[in-house]
Amino acid sequence: MVDLPLHTRRGMILSVAAALGLRTARAADTHLPRIGFLTGLGYPELEEAFNDELRKQGLIEGRDLNIERRLARANSDDISTMGRELANSDLALVVATALPAALVVRAANPRMPMVIGTCPGMVANGFARSMERPGGIYTGVDELPPGITARRLQLLKSAAPRITRVALLSTTPGTAAHGIQLADAQHAAADLRIEVKPYRATSLAEIESALEAIRTDRMEGLQNFQGGLSLANRQLIVGFAAANRIPAIYQARPFVAAGGLMAWAPDQTQQLRIAARMVARILRGTSPGDIPVVYPPRYDLLLNAHAARAIGLLFPAAILGQADSIVGAAK
User: Fold this and answer.
1) What's the CA gap between 308 and 177, in Å, rounded?
2) pTM for the whole thing?
3) Which of 58, 176, 281, 282 is the 20 to 30 A CA-CA neighbour of 165?
4) What is the CA radius of gyration of the chain?
């Protein structure tokens, strides 16, 4: 047996210990909880907000959890493909940032827990028994509080008092949330003495057909219902409204950033922060069904003065006074 110098033996011991430590760390890494995260391309701020809030909750990727991220292209089959893949992976849960992704995951694997970042109608779509006690394996943020659709129609009428016929462009998946929004709009329309007409679309081609029908029908205003498909194609819809000088109100901030006239909208980055806090609770042992579904904490009125001037519209003082943000306001 070779009698190695003391410093050599110490070096070998440290090397072996380091190797064992590395293997132990790698083994531990494989036992970290894994979650899926499914969102659309073009919304990096949502993923950034989610990641930042996880860190604030003490969950560091690679140390406390691993995340399988999937970014879906607009107007593709990515949501279906990626949703099925995540649904059938060995994951603790899936974070679906929008309803279309959540519907795919649930259909592919009804046993996969989910946190849904934005869902028009958690109860109506069967993801929760009630807001306070979802009671199953899903929770999230419901972006369709009672009266929100009526409120948007009222704001549009206040901004453009002369309109009498408003198109309701709906890309909301399924029938539940669409029906809620349509009933809400019809009830408000009766009080406002205007006519509303729904135009439904489930693909880019159908959006294009719906917009052409709105033009042919000479509709004077446009309200966009909740829907990831319309959000992904917001530039097309905003461009159509501008080209045809149609006052329009939208459900999300990015429409106004894209040149849309106005929106009554929540801050979706805050919704993803809420989703991250829900994920933290679930990974620490709380059942999703025991985490109440919540509405966005606030909605803001966003106006685009550039868009108004382009279609010859002057926002009334009452609307300007309610605005939380005005793009292109005179200084």
Assistant:
1) 30
2) 0.87
3) 176
4) 24
